């Protein structure tokens, strides 16, 4: 099914490719509201990745869905969501410098699997009765 996208206004230059991941267990609505003459709003399901193009000065609002309502839970500058062609995130200071790829900086640290004897004798406190 084709999705109709609102193109960026022609006066917007300097667009960036961005990625947002819904890491929650709730449905979210992603909106960019600070760009005049442009409407951007998408539903992002739990675990879903949203890839989009936005102006560098865009601010993404994340609204988290509750029962019959939604709460503004975060506002993220689009420059912080920027990715380049190699799949790495761009730095907000210089687009030529990357923060680190998935292969270099794992998100999950290895688990300590060292097996050792952890059994120790129990100490029992003695109780005395005084008459």
Automatic annotation (TrEMBL):
<dbReference type="Pfam" id="PF08865">
    <property type="entry name" value="DUF1830"/>
</dbReference>
<protein>
    <submittedName>
        <fullName>DUF1830 domain-containing protein</fullName>
    </submittedName>
</protein>
<dbReference type="InterPro" id="IPR014964">
    <property type="entry name" value="DUF1830"/>
</dbReference>
């Amino acid at each position: 099914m084709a999705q109709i996208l609102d193109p960026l206004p022609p006066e917007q230059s300097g667009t960036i490719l961005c990625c947002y991941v819904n890491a929650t267990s709730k449905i979210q609505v992603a909106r960019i509201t600070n760009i005049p003459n442009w409407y951007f709003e998408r539903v992002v399901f739990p675990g879903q990745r949203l890839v989009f193009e936005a102006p560098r000065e865009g601010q993404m609002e994340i609204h988290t869905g509750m029962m019959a309502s939604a709460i503004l839970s975060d506002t993220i500058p689009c420059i912080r969501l920027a990715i380049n062609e190699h799949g790495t995130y761009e730095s907000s200071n210089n687009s030529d410098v990357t923060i680190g790829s998935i292969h270099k900086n794992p998100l999950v640290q290895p688990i300590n699997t060292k097996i050792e004897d952890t059994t120790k004798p129990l100490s029992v406190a003695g109780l005395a009765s005084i008459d």
